[in-house]
Amino acid sequence: MPPVSSSLRTAASYAWRLLVVGAAVYAIFAVLGRFHEITVALFLGLVITALLASPTRWLARSLPRSLAVAVCLLGSVVLLMGVLALVGEAVAGESTTLVREFREGLGSIEKWLERPPFRLNPGALEDIQSRIGAFLSSHRSTLLNTALSGAGQLVRVVAVLALAVFSAVLFLHGGERQWSWFCAQLPAAAREPMRVGGRAAWVTFTGYTHGIVLIAATNAILVGVALFLLGVPLAVPLALLEFLAAFVPLVGSPVALAVAAVIALAAKGPLIAGVVIALIVVIGQIEGHVLHPLVMSWAVRLHPLVVAISVAAGAIAAGVVGAVVAVPLVSVIWSVHTALRRARPGVADGS
Fold first, then answer.
1. How far is C-alpha 231 from the geometric centre of its chain's CA atoms?
2. 52 in Cβ contact with 73 (< 8 Å)
3. Cβ(232)–Cβ(79) below 8 Å
4. Cα–Cα–Cα angle for 341, 343, 344, nearest 5°?
5. Residue 252 and residue 203 share a domain
6. pTM of the predicted model over 0.90
7. Which of 44, 208, 279, 331 would you label with 146, given CA atoms 20 to 30 Å apart?
8. pLDDT 10s digits, 203-260
9. Which of 185, 218, 247 is the last residue of a domain?
10. Hey, how many other C-beta atoms are within 10 angstroms of the C-beta on 349?
11. 181-192 pLDDT per residue, tens
């Protein structure tokens, strides 16, 4: 038998390692998919911990640690309830005006579509409305079952939120002690790499969380002020939607502004809707070229192509939750790899 070439041996050694890594990744995602509610709860608990760690540490200088954690969590809940109450009041206050403007706006849109270049049949929209009504009437039982299943989903959401808050309380109260205990249970050779990797992962995750919240708040303020000045209804709820959508990089903000453009089109006409569409471009440029490079300087910077692929892969694997989790997960993995590589003897910091 002829001797095996060194290049083939090298390729074979990399091939079986890749197979092992691929199998491990598949197993991890299979487990996370099977227990995705627990995964989401722990992720939210880490997010809450990253946001409240600094205020808790500051309050713990003059208060017992348990009381500092309680004050921070209760303050956050009060702030969140206040924002939701503000949004609900805005929706209730503008509901009558919004219905009237929607009816007037739909009439103007119909007339606009009937003119060149569209030349839509005047009865087309009425036919669509009648078809929608017939569909709702014929599928009333299906919609009712969907609503009931949605109530079951609400129970699961409440359970996930409760587990997330409980995890955050434990992390805030004694997260460092828990991590030290976990590292102490490992073999001696693995303790220091685990400490180095864990420290790098937490610094990156905290920096990313602070940065994305600041970017989302900035986007929400810009959108809310712009929509208010343009007279678009529901400016406050749409600003909140922009805040939540900004947690999905590259994709979330355009989707939220597209919803605002539809509302502007129905309520204010094509001109205002065109201005809102222009906001998609302007805010996208501000977010991509100003906010992300400036705010994310303390976190790992990823190439836009890596971010896009991560968001797409996360969305395919786990929907909206995967799209939100993908970028911080990739950032954490890369920062751990970099920290462990720098910690090896003979590896330069700049490599």
1. 28
2. yes
3. no
4. 70
5. yes
6. no
7. 44
8. 889 988 888 888 888 888 888 888 888 888 778 888 888 888 888 777 778 888 888 8
9. 185
10. 7
11. 888 888 888 888
Is pLDDT at 173 greater than 80 in this prediction?
Answer: yes
Q: Taken in order 323, 324, 327, 328, is the CA torsion positive or negative?
A: negative
CA distance 84 to 228: 18
- Amino acid of residue 110: E
Percent of all residues in the chain with a pLDDT value above 70, rounded to a whole number: 69
Strands (E), the chain: none
pLDDT at 211: 86
Distance CA 283, CA 218 (A): 10
Mean pLDDT of 275-285: 82
Structural domain contains residue 81: yes
Q: Say if 2 falls within a structural domain.
A: no
For the chain, counts of helices (H) and of strands (E): 11, 0
215 and 166 housed in the same domain: no
Q: Which of 55, 321, 329, 53 is nearest to 204 (CA)?
A: 329
Domain range for 105: 35-185
The DSSP symbol for 117 reads T
pLDDT tens for 26-50 read 666 566 666 777 888 888 999 999 9
